Amino acid sequence: MKRLKLFLMLLVLIFPLFLLGCWDQDQLKQARLVYTIALDQASGGQLLGSFVVRNTTSHTQQIETNNTIYYAKGRSMREMSQAVSASLNGRLRVFKFRVLLLSEKLARTQDLYPLLDSFYREPKSPLNAKVGIVKGEANEVVQHQKIGTTLIGEYLDQLIEGEEKLSVISPQDIQSICPLMFDPGEDFSLPYFEVKGNEVEVVGAAMMRGQRMVGSLSRVESKLLQMMRGKNDGTALVSLAIPMTNVHSAVNRVSFEIMKSSPEIELRVRRNHLDVYYKLGLKINVKEYPPANLDSPKEVSKLNRYIEKILKDRCKHLFAKMQKHQFDGLGIGRQIIAYHNDEWKHMNYKEVYTHANFYPTIHVESKGNGIIY
């Protein structure tokens, strides 16, 4: 028994000598962190990558941070990353990577997946990083080292997060768009940026059909699309012009918050014909209404009917625009695959979708009209 205990004690003491320890450690203090990458189209079929790398310096009790932009050309993301890494002694890392920007020209002419392939294959890649499209050249955005007092990487990340909370754009990241790029029955949208003087703004959404951009939506249209998809409960504030008979004001505005949106889609599918019956139920909370006569149930009902009419017309125009670009933002094709699979197998869906009939029905119910009513 004593010999067994002695053997076990020796084994416990000797075994740690054969352990490898942290063989794969990658110390953060030795890394050069890239926060943002902007991709543009260069000559000869090459890409121009602008890598925003963070610099941190300490002076006595203060730590200062700033950015350095490194430019590289190549035919793939990996090739450009290696070129930048060579100038940084191979220490370029993506631990803190937040935003990938693509120029509109690049997004319209080249597939998206090959540009993201290296992120999906690298175990340490932050797949929750955002992807955005820039009107014009993408490197124009990162050349703004700071917006106000915020470094450009953090600014873009916070800007996208804020617009997602306001339901202006759809919440997407590198991981979530991967299956959508190959989904024949549903398309997706990405933030659409524009440089305006010293500011960078989200001016709407880029419509992505498969792996390429096919058009853009304004902020109003993009918010309406989120509403139609039922993705903006309690976050979207909508403002509409309401025609009134008041002699003092030809046009009044109503602003309301969407408390709950309940979309329903019913399809009638034949081989080369598609009817889309779309129903949207909205429960709203009126935030601003200058006529201030919502103590009357009759006036509340009248206001609801006005809102229904305006939203119905806007839904028709938005669906027609999506049809024009063969952009299935509502995932109608996905429902055909699930519930009408035989018809799906024998149809040219994009052609059928372009000529589909769209019949929207909107029902609005005001659940809150302010504290004085």
Automatic annotation (TrEMBL):
Segments forming domain Spore germination protein N-terminal: 24-194
Presence of the UniProt keyword Transmembrane in the record: no
Annotated Gene Ontology cellular component terms: membrane
Gene3D superfamilies recorded: Nutrient germinant receptor protein C, domain 3
Domain of life: Bacteria
UniProtKB keywords: Germination, Lipoprotein, Membrane, Palmitate, Signal
Primary localisation category: membrane
Lipid bilayer topology: Lipid-anchor
Cross-referenced PROSITE patterns: PROKAR_LIPOPROTEIN
InterPro entries in alphabetical order: GerAC_N (IPR057336), Spore_GerAC-like (IPR008844), Spore_GerAC-like_C (IPR046953), Spore_GerAC_C_sf (IPR038501)
Domain Spore germination GerAC-like C-terminal: residue ranges: 204-365
GO biological process terms on file: spore germination
Signal peptide (residue range): none
Localization of this protein: Membrane
NCBIfam families named among the record's database cross-references: spore_ger_x_C
Recorded family membership: Belongs to the GerABKC lipoprotein family.
Descriptive protein name: Germination protein, Ger(X)C family
Annotated source species: Seinonella peptonophila
